[in-house]
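Thread: Newbie trying to understand structure tokens

Hi all, I'm a second-year student working on a class project, and my supervisor (Dr. K.) asked me to get a predicted structure for one chain before our next meeting. I've only ever worked with sequences, so writing a 3D structure as a token string is new to me. If someone could post the tokens and maybe explain what I'm looking at, I'd be very grateful. Here's the chain:
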Amino acid sequence: MKKMKIQIECPYCKAKAILRPASVVYGSTLKEKGRHLYLCTNWPACDAYVSAHKSSLLPMGTLANGDLRHKRIMAHRALSAFQRHGHMETWAVYLWLQMQLGLSREEAHIGRFSAEQCEQVIAACRQAMKLPRLLSA
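---
Reply by user tm_fold:
Sure, no problem. This is what the structure looks like when written as tokens:
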């Protein structure tokens, strides 16, 4: 299988991003063994990067700086808490998210979200978990 060459531009400094082992950023840990990142070539001055899928090496989203990565982590946590709270399957949670944010299936990936979209996810999950559960008849 031929691997595609991915061209990614850093949204912060406009430099190119290159595929590197995750150990460049995280050090040598068992958790990161075999993992890769698309890393801005101006790293560490520009701290933008995104994880790559382990099997395909395609980016899991868009490059993000530390602040945006943190917001994406918080959005994922809020969505996971909402999923546990509602005893929902992952597909159902993402369908709900699409409806809440008015997104298509292709657009509903936290790894592509802006800081504002992450805030919307967190707020929507918090609001939904405050609603009383409906009793089944």
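A couple of things are worth pointing out once you decode it. The first strand starts at residue 8 and ends at 9. Residues 66-130 form one domain. Feel free to ask follow-ups in this thread.
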